[in-house]
Amino acid sequence: MARDKDDNDGGGFSGKRNKSWREIDAMRGKSKSHSRHDDPAQQRIERSASYQKYKTAADALFTGGELPQGLAEKFDPEGKRKTQKQAMQKLQQAESRQEWVAGVVEYLEKYPELPEDTYFLDSLLDHPRERIADKALTKLEAMEAEGKLKTKVPKSLDERLKSIQLTSMDPEMQGRAKALREKLKA
Questions:
Q1: Do 91 and 100 meet the contact criterion of CB atoms below 8 Å apart?
Q2: How far apart are CA 85 and CA 76, in angstroms?
Q3: Residue 8 needs a FRET pair 20 to 30 A away by CA distance; which of 25, 77, 125, 128 works?
Q4: How far apart are CA 102 and CA 57, in angstroms?
Q5: Nearest CA to 91 among 130, 62, 117?
């Protein structure tokens, strides 16, 4: 069937005018100029108290903060995560280097499993005992292998790895620090 070619015709067989993609997107509410923030219903939801509570709970869950009560009972019934977090904060508040060094040793005796906190692990690389720095380096290598070091990496991590590479007495540890440093730069 041949298509009627008429200058008054919008297009197609039906004679109706075709809509542009911009008009179609505008009808759906998905155009570039239309965003979620322009939608009053979405704004009302985001301003509600329950939504704010949900957002803070989700942020706490993913940033290592305080878990909501229901989740804390399921995932951490003994409260180990909370006490471990408090112990880490106590280390950060140490007033002298000697107090911090002793606090780290106590912390590792109490909690032998290191947390996946890159800032805390970065500080442990500066510990005078090579055994502790080695343990932190091992954890950082494992996190890098899992792809967890791509987002939040302390700026000082490169310098601490370089320091281990240059000053460590253990050649194997020097090589591991160099390899991790190169992986992080790539």
A1: yes
A2: 12
A3: 25
A4: 34
A5: 117
Over residues 41-57, the pLDDT tens digits come to 777 888 888 888 888 77
Question: Which element (helix H / strand E) includes 160?
Answer: helix 157-167
DSSP state of 67: P
Q: How many CA atoms lie within 13 A of 139 on its CB side?
A: 20
Task: Report the SS3 class of residue 92.
Answer: helix
Burial class (CB in 10 A: 0-12, 13-18, 19+), 186: exposed
Task: Report the C-alpha gap between 58 and 56 in whole angstroms.
Answer: 5
Write down the pLDDT at residue 175. Answer: 93
Q: Give the pLDDT confidence score for residue 136 in this predicted structure.
A: 92
Question: Of the spans 52-56, 70-74, 90-94, 141-145, which averages the highest pLDDT?
Answer: 141-145
Q: Distance (Å, rounded) from C-alpha 113 to C-alpha 135? A: 10
Round to whole Å and give the CA distance between 65 and 72: 11
- CA-to-CA dists, residue 115 to 43, 54, 163, angstroms: 37, 25, 23
Give the global pTM: 0.57
CA distances from 162 to 25, 99, 138, 143, 179 (A): 53, 25, 16, 18, 10
In this prediction, residue 115 carries a pLDDT of: 84
